[in-house]
Recover the amino acids of this structure.
């Protein structure tokens, strides 16, 4: 997935078109820019004049409506990655835009009047307060449910991800980017895509990335807003998908896992963590009925058995289900079948 990089301050951005790009007068900042297959990526120095260096690489972004490629239609001020950059699908003509913090590839992002509220569990994490608190106390409380902590969870996930090291990875429902930063700092992946539906979570992710003094490859991290059930990536273009403490928050886990299976290449790996309420919880009367009511009003999902999660992966087209347990915590992994 080619990118244009202007070293300095980290800023995810948009793509540039053409086999060669002209020089720019540009302030010192860092911009990550997607380029379609026919285009090139450039590396730039922090001087007033910018020279382009061509490096072709497979593209990955796609229209979330029809899954076809996107084209650049507007680049305000002549600046690569400036706010207001517009993308359009070559096929269905859907329009998308980028801003200072992320590329917005949600289905309805180009609409002016239409709004679509999501379930309560999704809307909660779109609020500025919860987005601010998530990495400042909220996530830390998961230790009471058996979550071993981000660093240990990262080490566990890395074991599952060994077959795809060196490829690209989507950190789905990335929140404030806790694991996105760990993946980037590990330098085990060629590209880290921090993806979330919450604009405010992506703003927090952007700020935390800018504060990382020891992260030398920030240009390899790209922030994207998208629906987990409508991923804006080409089929078979992704090596790995990670979803930390997210499965239970998705309005339709089956739709999400099916989408993850679509974008994974053959042999690609899916790793996720969530809560599971089995064991003594199975003796709670009417728990399944209570679960249905909770899902109806909040959009959250309660998993009651490991078999349920295995069936979820299988129904989505993934195989080789395996898991690690610690109390309510479960880390699972499954892979896209090889051809």
């Amino acid at each position: 997935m080619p990118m244009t990089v202007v070293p300095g301050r980290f800023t995810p951005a948009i793509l540039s078109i053409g086999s060669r790009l002209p020089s720019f007068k540009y302030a010192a900042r860092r911009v990550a820019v997607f380029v379609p297959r026919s285009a090139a990526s450039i590396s730039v120095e922090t001087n007033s004049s910018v020279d382009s260096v061509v490096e072709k690489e497979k593209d990955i972004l796609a229209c979330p409506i029809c899954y076809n490629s996107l084209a650049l239609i507007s680049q305000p001020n002549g600046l690569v990655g400036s706010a207001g950059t517009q993308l359009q699908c070559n096929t269905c003509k859907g329009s998308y835009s980028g801003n200072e913090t992320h590329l917005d590839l949600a289905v309805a992002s180009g609409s002016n009047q239409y709004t679509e509220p999501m379930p309560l569990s999704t809307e909660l994490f779109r609020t500025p307060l919860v987005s601010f608190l998530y990495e400042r106390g909220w996530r830390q409380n998961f230790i009471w449910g058996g979550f071993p902590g981000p660093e240990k969870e990262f080490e566990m996930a890395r074991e599952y991800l060994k077959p795809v090291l060196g490829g690209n990875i989507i950190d789905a429902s990335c929140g404030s980017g806790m694991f996105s930063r760990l993946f980037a700092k590990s330098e085990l992946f060629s590209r880290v895509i921090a993806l979330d539906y919450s604009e405010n979570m992506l703003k927090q992710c952007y700020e935390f990335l800018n504060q990382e003094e020891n992260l030398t490859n920030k240009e390899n991290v790209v922030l994207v807003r998208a629906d987990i059930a409508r991923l804006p990536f080409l089929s078979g273009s992704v090596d790995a998908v990670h979803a930390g403490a997210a499965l239970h928050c998705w309005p339709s886990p089956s739709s999400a896992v099916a989408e993850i299976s679509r974008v994974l290449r053959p042999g690609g790996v899916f790793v996720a963590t969530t809560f599971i309420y089995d064991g003594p919880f199975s003796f709670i009367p009417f728990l399944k009925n209570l679960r249905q009511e909770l899902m109806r009003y909040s959009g959250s999902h309660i998993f009651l058995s490991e078999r349920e999660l295995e069936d979820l992966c299988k129904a989505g087209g993934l195989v080789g289900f395996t898991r690690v347990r610690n109390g309510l915590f479960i880390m699972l992994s499954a892979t896209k079948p090889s051809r």
